[in-house]
Amino acid sequence: MATVGSIGAAVAVGKILDLKLEELQKAISIAAIQVTGMHDSFGIDAKPFHVGRAAQNGLMAALLAKNGFSASLEGLEAERGWIHVVSTRENTTAEFEALGEVWEIERNTFKPFPCDRIIHAAIDGWIQIRQLALEQNFNISSITNVTARTHPRVLFLTDDPEPTTGLAGKFSVYPAAAIALLYGKATPSQFTDDVVQNSTVIGLREKVHVTSDDTFEELEEFVSATFEDGTTLEVHVEHTIGSYENPLTAEQLKVKFLDQVGTAIGDSRAEQAWLTFSTIANATDVGDALRLYRSEAKTSG
């Protein structure tokens, strides 16, 4: 999002503003010079700032182009343009030829967990191990060792063994393992400062050992937990929940929606919001949703 979000937002806003071709080219160039974001910001406030700033930059780029701001017409493909700044690939013909034919948005899915997607398979696997343990009457507190064999990018992106905040915990595979095993779920309520700093979470986190396997897919994981009696439970996650091959069901998506939205606006209004948004394709006036919540907000004081 940080490296392409500004450009995507500029195109989206440009289409809404009905920009002419040359204006849209300029909007893309203006957005391209504002791309933001670095891996070094993972786990701190600057990380979510990337996303908001990208959207803001794209909006501004489209508005500037609409109002005559001058910019290159080849901001992406020029010899010193964006593509050559962010990539070592010199031939982008294939990508440009796919425009209008390949739609990446069709491969988008809803994330089940509020953390770096690269550790979703691990969380999925450890939640399954917790369930197996409970079914076999094992106590999670008797775990002596936790392992994961995973794609190399997991350690590249989330190898922070001692995160101290909830936000940092979202980008560390170690507390993610402890949270999944102890709570059996991973929602915003688990990725808080209090949970990440909890002594029980830290104790289990310190038993987690992760190794890389370059034969694995990015969203594939082999996880295990060993208990005091020597029993080891293992799970191989080939396609994690929330992946293109294994998307959230409608019921799972509803549970996630109500959990997160209910925290902000209350359970009753969250239920109404779910009903409204899940049937919005059949709505004759999407403004009904906005008017509904404004009305209830006034009624409830």
Task: Describe, in plain words, how this protein is organized in 3D.
The protein is an alpha+beta fold and 301 residues long. Helices cover 48% and strands 9% of the residues. The protein has a four-stranded mixed beta sheet, covered by helices on one side. α1 runs parallel beside α3, α2 packs antiparallel against α3 and α9 packs across α11. The longest helix is centred in the N-terminal third of the chain and has 21 residues. The C terminus is likely disordered. Belongs to the PrpD family. It holds the Pfam family MmgE_PrpD_C. It comes from Colletotrichum musicola. GO terms for molecular function: lyase activity. This is MmgE/PrpD family protein.
What integer is the average pLDDT? 89
Q: Give the uncertain stretches in residue-range form.
A: 295-301
Tally of helical segments: 14
Strand order of the largest sheet: 2-1-3-4
What is the H-and-E element order? HHHHHHEHHHHHEEEHHH
**Secondary-structure content class:** alpha+beta
What is the CA-based Rg, rounded?
23 Å
In helices, the fraction of residues equals 40-55%
Question: Biggest sheet, in brief?
Answer: 4 strands, mixed
- Strand content is 5-15%
Shape: globular
Head-to-tail CA distance between termini: 38 Å
Number of strands: 4
What key attributes describe this structure?
301 residues, alpha+beta, 4-stranded mixed beta sheet, 4 strands, 48% helix, globular, lyase activity
